[in-house]
Amino acid sequence: MRERPEPPEPLGATTVDAHTHLDACGCETAADVAAAMDRASAVGVTRAVTIADDLPSARWAAQAAHWDPRVFAAVALHPTRTAAVTDDEFAEIERLAADPRVVAVGETGLDYYWDYSPPEAQQASFRRHIDLAKRLGKPLMIHDRDAHSDVLRILREEGAPETVIFHCFSGDAEMARVCSDAGYVLSFAGPVTFRNAKPLRAAASVPPDDLLLVETDAPFLTPHPHRGRANEPYCLPWTVRGLAELRGVPADRIAEITERNAERVFRLGELPSVATETTSTVSDPRSA
Fold first, then answer.
1. Correct CATH for 15-269 of 3.30.300.30, 1.10.238.10, 3.20.20.140, 3.40.50.10890
2. What three-state secondary structure class fits 141?
3. Which of 60, 96, 210, 231 is spaced 20 to 30 A from 286 at the CA atom?
């Protein structure tokens, strides 16, 4: 595993990591999750949404959201995992997505960069996830890589859920305007701090405050100045500060805005506490 950087200077206000992969960060047990969230909380990142990209990680994420009150989950089948999805597998995703501590359906969408799954299979899966999000009344968290026009087209054709989140937004300023005009939430990750990501950095100032989230997408996309090293929720302050610089506001203002938006988008104040729940949706994560 890559070496983790030293922690950043703590933020002066708290915020939420809207998209991370705690299992891929090396977390396996409740103690691992608590340790990762302790590191994050020490720098002002007091809550996180851990994301699934296949069925085993969906089982794990749903379970992890019951281990620690600072952790919530989103479950779906990543577009690169959609080449051969059975009805039984999708039925289990539906069951996991109904868990009260699963706060979004995701990450789903389209990925034309990799060729692990053909576009037709990806698009069919994306449509099923859109329908699931609408039936559950939960946000849809989108993975969009080299597929902007098809993602937007399918959202129009299917009718978007009430809340749509473009995780690790990767478009330019024009794409950001289209999404903002549609009321879609844009979540910015480490690449917004990369000096060579000029179209993305130009997009960062486009969305209004109420359509803005921040994320790590850990263990991937570690922000500048630690690009290439291991990423974890505690690294989020570097992205917060980079985004604040691009938007011309104090970092604590970005932290406050994105925390408030995460609370609203994911309805965090409406969720049952893990301390009061006596059973979990998943008794044996990662197993069928």
1. 3.20.20.140
2. strand
3. 231
129-138 b/e (C-beta count within 10 Å ≥ 16 → b): bbbbbbebeb
Q: For 83, which DSSP code?
A: T
Residue 255 is encoded by which pair of tokens? 């932290």
Q: What are phi and psi of 111, to 5 degrees?
A: -135, 105
Better-predicted residue by pLDDT, 184 or 284 = 184
* CA gap 249, 283 in Å, rounded: 45
In whole angstroms, what separates CA 250 from the centre of its chain? Answer: 23
Taking only the tens place, the pLDDT of each residue in 74-110 is 999 999 999 999 999 999 999 999 999 999 999 999 9
Residue 234 pLDDT: 98
Q: How far apart are CA 179 and CA 206, in angstroms?
A: 10
